[in-house]
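Milestone M4 deliverable, item 7.
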Amino acid sequence: MSIGTLYFIPVTLGGDHISHVLPVDVISITHSLDTFIVENEKTARHFLAAIRHPKAIRDIQFKTLNTHTPDKELPSLLAELVAGKHVGMMSEAGCPGIADPGATLAWLAHQKGIRVAPLVGPSSILLGLMGSGLNGQRFTFLGYLPSDKSARIQQLREIEKRANSMNETQIFIETPYRNQHMLEDILANCNGNTKLSIACNVSLPEEFIMTKTIFQWKQKPLPDLHKKPTVFLLLA
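Output delivered:
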């Protein structure tokens, strides 16, 4: 019996602008599947309804993989793949395997000889970098910075030093309700010549991608980033 394929299926970064961000092949492959490993079942159900999955949502099987899933449960998520069934993996937003628990599952799949097939779709991290005008040859994604203010400021200073010494774009994100605090800390603690790009609501109608030096950002009213998905990119 052949082993199934684990498809990493991208979803929108918000809203239902399917045709704007997803290739036809992604939708076609997703239509062919009826078992999904998902970060958020409610979000996954909404996405499948938006792409008009041919099967009734109630007849589709969902298995949850999120930050609270114990490692000991991961092998069971791959059981149907080992038995020969194709399965889709979906993040809550964007591309699975990037800044979500999907990477752990992909690693385990490789150990079991399961093919992992990533499909093309939107990643706010890469789209933000593409539109930033910062160094796309050398870059590092750092994920979330510390929530503690003093620790966050310390890491921002270290990030700026690395960006300067390595000529390397530093990319990081924040919990949406703390975005404004993050922006204020960046402006208060980074050098005036350092470049900061803000990529907010990427791929949505309200998309905002803007790059300025810290000095330039301080000269104008700051954008409202509160509770809006945002990526910060820094290059000294």
